[in-house]
Amino acid sequence: MKPFPSSICIVDDDEDFSAFLAEYLSLRGCRCEVFVSAEELLQKRDFGRYDFFILDLGLPGIDGVDLTALIRANSSSGILIISGRLGPDAFNSALAAGADMFINKPVRFDQVLHATQSIWRRYGDPRARSASWVISQDLTRLVSPTGEVVSLSPYEGRLLDHLRQAGDEAVSRADLAAAVSGAGGEDHRNLDATFFRLRRKIERDAKQQSPFRTVHGVGYQLAEDIQCEAV
Amino acid sequence: MSEILGYDIPHLGYFFVGHLAAFTVCILSFGDRNRSTDAWVTSNILGVLGMAGIAYTEGNVTLMSAIGASLTVFSGSVKALAFTSGRLSRKRYRWGNAIVLLSVLCAALIMIFPSLPYRRFVFLLGLVLTMTASLIYLRRNRRWAGLKQARYVFATYFMGILATLGVIAKTAFLPADFAIVDHSTTGTANFLQLCIASMVFQLVFLTLIFGLNRRERERVFLRNSRLRESMALKKAIYDETSALSNEREQLIKMLTHEVRQPLNTAQAALQSITADVAMSELKGQSIKSKLDNTLSVLNNITLSISNSLVGATLISSRREADRKSVNVCDVSQLAYLDLNASDRTRIDLQFAQPYIYADVDPIVLRLALRNLLENAVKYSPANTPIIFKIDTDEDRLMLQFSVRNHIIDKGMLDGDIFGRNKRGVDNRYGGEGLGLFIVTEVAAMHEGTSHFDVDGNEVTFYLEIPA
Fold first, then answer.
1. pTM, 2 dp
2. Residue A40 near residue A34, CB atoms below 8 Å
């Protein structure tokens, strides 16, 4: 995998900022193209030309959220949003549309560089978006979409397998504890501690976010699909 | 004179007068005075006078007994008025008024014509009419609507009417000149019935008044409760408006002192650079130093503006943390990169691992961490190290962000340093005192905590959030 995107598309109506940013990023050896509106970019209709997109939310005409959704529908490239808009609506809508990271202004070029590198490390490999997590038949190994292997204890393996079988449904702590260890009760601290450790282990070994998430006040739920290893 | 249970009519008269007096005292003592109670008490006084005429005179035709009987009927008429709202001209009272007038006519006939034929019938008819008028007033006056005690009064009066009609039927065949009150055994028994009926009427009226008073008290209580709620709401609106007004004032103050002045300084620095560039003998190092200085000033301005925006909008409005699963190491790195490049060299980043995902609000978390780092730079001796750590606490299932630095003056840690607009000790240190307030608010938004430890000449600030 290349250490840095080789072509970056910047869409921002602040032409001065975009020009300075393009100049800064070009020093990293990549080709940058600047557009002042979504319409200008869409005229080219060739999202595949770019490894990475840096977008502003407050664009004239088609706004940054819609543009993000359009790009995500046609490309698996990394998308970084830079915006001065505060509040949950901007943040949520950008991420929901498919952006990988949101940075609020004021922002410095070295922060843009760091965010770009971070996203690139995570999603630079095309498998990161297209492949699934895989758990081994004996529940002792979890393989990330990009091929990193995480070893699992028997307890962790059973927990993940139970979550996998539940599909998109959130599983309560009580159900998880009962299904995996046969122990009921109200105190699920051990269960939470196991998930806490497992999360850290996956982050450390797979270098990405764990495929499950906490559902506050309920239990846990798969955030990404986990396939069982084929025999 | 005949007796019933050893009592003749004069003795029963004592009982009659006694119970009227007792109930009158009760009504005056326990009930709130109003037109109804006034009418009832007046009627009781008339009843006592009437009873004196009836019970303590003998003979078939006497002026005293006629006056007594007349006053007794008239007393009933006044009692009926106790059930009205006072405004008798209202249309809904017309039937009651007509019947009361008929009862008054009966009373007048008895008084004017002591030897009136069938005077006993007229007397009893007068009583029936007063009770009938009472029932009509009771039903027509909305004041009694919904009171269960009104039903008791209605039932009592209705039974009184039936009983009196029974007495009328029994005495229908008596001679035309029969006395209104005879002292025979039957007459004494009738008088006893009258006494008992009167007592029951007094009792149910008393309960009616109590019921009314209770309902009035409940209404007053409800009204007061609503008033209190309304006052509380208005006070909350007032407080919120005042808080907003204060926010604006703070913002203006901040724009004046924290933005305009530093911008002016930056202008000066840029002017100086321009002058340097104009001079041929300038040195590169001189320009770099001035540019660093300018960047530092602009950096402080953006921090002040960010703090004020977050302090005045996101946190003051007590919005919930907008959590997303993000790599807190990235957020921390962004906060670190918010600092001046020259200050970053002092900071040693020690993250437990490069990827730590947690459900956080990255915008406010970045600002909180930046404030911790800026404070560490600002309040520590130049060139001393600063350690910025992220640890995972498996025992408490927490993420712990910590910033450790040497300290210039321990006195700046006295008092409530996490409070709003609270700075170290005094104005020796700049800023608006929003930094640590934002840190503690961000911790609270994430159900976490913030605190600090002092160890010798070093202080460590912690921001802990559950993960």
1. 0.61
2. no
